[in-house]
Specification:
- The protein is α+β, with helices and mostly antiparallel strands.
- It folds into 2 domains: about 80 residues, no CATH class; about 50 residues, no CATH class.
- The chain contains 5 helices and 5 strands.
- Strands 1-2-3 form a 3-stranded antiparallel β-sheet, with no helix packed on it.
- A hairpin with a 4-residue loop joins strand 1 and strand 2.
- It is globular.
Length: about 140
């Protein structure tokens, strides 16, 4: 557990989901990416209960996020956008996709079998399923 000042001085990056940064992802505006980079470490620490001396506004943020009210402030709005977009990402090289309900793995052997069965190169298609908030990659 660290002080609030420690978390405020740390820049926030998500190399796994946004490897080129928030500003270059195309998801966030310039102001939103700056807000997330400057306050994201504190926000994550607040949600993980790692802040020793939270302020009243910090506790209001945690309460709003836990209640699902992402329109309470600009910080909750940006954090909600970050959470919703990190769940939609898919890794083609890793062969996985993630939804709120489950994470399913596709082995590289299955993908290799699909590729060898076709005469021409496989074409990747995106199929969005809004009911599960998941994006699935199909090779044909």
């Amino acid at each position: 557990m660290k002080t609030r000042q420690y978390w405020c001085n740390k820049r926030f990056y998500d190399i796994n989901k946004f490897p080129y940064g928030f500003a270059r992802s195309g998801v966030f505006t310039h102001d939103e990416s700056n807000l997330l980079e400057q306050n994201g470490s504190l926000l994550q620490a607040l949600l993980d209960e790692q802040v020793f001396d939270p302020r009243e506004q910090d506790l209001a943020f945690v309460k709003a996020v836990n209640a699902g009210d992402f329109e309470a402030s600009s910080l909750t709005r940006v954090w909600g956008k970050y959470i919703s977009h990190q769940r939609r990402l898919i890794s083609i090289a890793g062969g996985w996709y993630q939804s709120e309900k489950s994470t399913q793995n596709v082995s590289s052997v299955e993908l290799a079998e699909v590729m060898t069965q076709k005469d021409n190169l496989p074409v990747a298609e995106w199929d969005e399923n809004p009911q599960e908030d998941v994006v699935i990659l199909r090779a044909s």
